Amino acid sequence: MSIARFLKRKAPSDESGYSEEPLAEPSAKRMKPTLPSCTFALGFHAPTFTVTPPSFSLNIHSPLSGKDIIDKDLDMVLYRPFLDSPRQLYNYLLESLPWYRVRYTVRGMTINTPRYTTVYGKDMMNGVDTAYQKKPRPIPPLLAALKDEVERVSGASFNFVLCNFYADGKDSISYHSDDESFLGPDPTIASMTLGGTRAFHMKHKTDRSVPVFKTDLRDADLLIMRGKTQACWEHSVPKRANVPPRINLTFRKAINVRGTNNYYRYNVGDGPMFRYVGGKMVETKPELPLADLLEKSAAP
Ligand SMILES: O=C(O)CCC(=O)C(=O)O
Ligand SMILES: [Fe+2]
What are the Basic residues biased-composition ranges (predicted)? Predict the structure, then answer.
């Protein structure tokens, strides 16, 4: 559904659960999903988004079966596909989410994050908002519904959804592991792909005799990384020529305030916000109405 079509609708008066401030920035037990196919009512309170959310079905693929990917210190399960008919979800997230291109400084060096990011959630300490450097944003109902399904399948629980958008092959994430202490020991991280296929590489941190693990991640894939995977391996999405755009959602559990502060700092940041309008990213402000944005996107 296009944003233009959303615009014609009025916001319901009870759409009060969510508003965005101009923000300055797990060994899992596998379970069978109890609902092989679910229809979600997709209430989605996007920031400053004064339109009624669309309603469409998200169908968990049935029968759902995961493929184990096991190597030295590596413990993963790949559900391919996790969802049937993911296209609407991809389009909706791309057009509804506020995106950021975060720039930050470490040891005097300016780093430009080479992809669009955004984040929702709050750690399990669940402090008052004033305890945080940036006000945590509740997970919108659509992403919360997806999170519920991912929790059901992975047996893990999550309180954060990190979103990446790789607009083209120049966008990437370099080798890293999601092993910060604020995730607790041996965190389970669930990673969902929507849209284009991208290469996904993994390497053992210390044992150079273990071959690099190379796969691709495809539309509607759900990769669950667990056990010692984060402690012992790094993963990356390398730059590529001529690849289609891709959204990645990662589901995680942060155990303390430090995790929340870290996630907002590096996935929202202090810079401008972008929206995907009329087929491209347009720099905007949270308060700018979508009609203005559409005009801006139409400008040459
Ligand atoms: O896009 C992906 O598949 C990986 C994303 C990732 O590793 C991260 O956000 O930490
Ligand atoms: Fe990661």
Answer: 1-10
- At position 24, the amino acid (one-letter code) is A
* Ligand 1 centre distance from Cα of residue 50 (Å): 30
Dump pLDDT digits (tens) for 96-148. Answer: 899 999 999 999 999 999 999 999 999 999 889 999 999 999 999 889 999 99
83, two tokens? 């969802």
Type of residue numbered 119: V
Rounded to whole angstroms, the Cα distance separating 69 from 233 reads 13
Name the CATH topology of 3-298. Answer: Jelly Rolls (2.60.120)
ipTM: 1.00
pLDDT tier, 291 (very low <50, low <70, confident <90, very high otherwise): low
Ligand 1, CB within 6 Å, residue ranges:
162, 164, 173, 178, 191, 200, 217, 235, 237, 248, 250
